[in-house]
Amino acid sequence: MQLPPLSLMTLARRQEGLVSAGQCDRAGVGAARRGRLVRDGVLEHPTRGVLDVEPGRDRRYDADHRRRRAAWLGMLALGPGAIAVGACALALHGVEGLPLDIRPEIALPGGSAGRHRADVRVRTFGRFESFRYGDRTIAALVPALVQALPELPRAHAVAVLDSVLQRGLLTDATFEVVRERVRGRRGAAGLAASWHLVDRRAESPLETFARLECVDAGVPPDDLQVEIRSSRGHLLGRGDLGWRLPHGRWLIAEIDGREFHERPDALLRDRSRQNALVSSGRVDILRFTATDLSTRAIVPSTVRTALNRYTERSNLT
Predict the structure, then answer these.
(1) CA-CA distance, 16 to 92, in Å (whole number)?
(2) I need a surface site. Which of 34, 39, 122, 226 has the fewest CB within 10 A?
(3) Per-residue pLDDT tens over the stretch 67-89
C-alpha cells in the first residue's frame, strides 16, 4: 500500500491531521492518487477539499485536538484566505473551557459572506484584529472572545473567561474592553447576568462548572483555592472549592480532571496532599470527577447533604 509522502504527513501533523487538496497537489499527490488512497483507507474525506491522513485515530478523549481540528477544517476547506474566528480562534489560542465539539467557523477577507457550506460556518464581521498563525490567519484573542462569548452556553462562557484571566492572557482592563464590545451583540443579553461569576482563581473548567452548579443550587462556595495551614503556619495544601464550617473548619470539594489527576505522579501528590489536609483536623474533603458533573445534581446535592449534617451536629453540641 502506497503512503502519502513524508512532506505531506509532516504538514498534516501541524494541521491536526488534515491537509487540503491544494496542499496534496503541491506535494505531488494528485486527484487520481488521492482517490486510490481514499479507497484504500489511507486517507479520508471529512469534507470537500480536505483530507484526513489519520482516519483511524481515536479522538474521543482528545478534546483539545478535536477543537483545533475543527478550526483547521474550516480554514483548509475555504482556502488560504479563510480566517479562523470565534470559538475556533479561541481553540487555536489554547483557551480552555470551550465545548467539547465546536463547529468550523471562519471569516473571509473583506467581510465576504459568500461560499456558504453546510459543514463550515462562514461569518460576516466588521473589521477586527488578527494575526498570522503559521501560514494562516486567526482572529486575535479579544475579537475572538467578543465573537464567541455571546454564542457559548453560559457555563462555557464563564469557564473561557476564567481561563484567559487565570492564565494571564487577559488583563483586568482588557476584560472590561471585551465586556464593552460584547454589549449589544446578538446573544449578549443572556451573558449579562454571568459577568460577575467570572473568577480568575479557577484553575480548570471543571472547577468552574462545579462552582456554577453549586451557585445555581443555592450552595455557592465561600472561597476558591482555600489555603489550609498547619498550627505553625505551614501551607499544607489548597482546596478547589471551600465552604466554612463551625469552629474554623472547612468542607473542601476537589474536582479531579482526567487529564491531570490520573497520571501516577499526580495521584501520588494528590494522595499526600489530601492526607496532610485531613490530618490537620480542620478539613473534610469531597472528591468529584467530570462524570459527577454530567448530571448537574451530584456535586451540589452532596455538598448540601454534608453542610446540613455539620449544621445538625453543631446544633446538638
Answers:
(1) 11
(2) 39
(3) 999 999 999 999 999 999 999 99
* DSSP assignment letter at 2: -
Q: Is 287 exposed, middle or buried (0-12, 13-18, 19+ CB in 10 A)?
A: middle
β-bridge mates for residue 251, sequence order: 243, 284
- Interatomic CA distance for residues 105 and 84, integer angstroms: 6
Please name the helix (run of DSSP H) or strand (run of DSSP E) that holds residue 68, with its range, or none: helix 63-78
Q: Name the residue with cell 480554514.
A: 75
Residue 8: other Cβ atoms inside 10 A? 19
Q: 240 Cβ partners below 8 Å, 6+ apart?
A: 203, 207, 210, 224, 225, 252, 253, 254, 255
**DSSP conformation letters of 125-152:** -----EEEETTEEEE-HHHHHHHHGGGS
Q: Residues of the chain whose pLDDT is less than 50? A: 259-264, 266-268
E strands present in the chain = 18-20, 44-47, 50-52, 83-84, 105-107, 121-123, 130-133, 136-139, 223-229, 235-245, 249-256, 283-289
Interval 111-169: pLDDT, tens: 655 566 778 999 988 889 999 999 999 999 999 999 999 999 999 999 999 999 999 99
Cα(148)–Cα(87) distance, integer angstroms: 5
Q: What are phi and psi of 261, to 5 degrees?
A: -75, -10
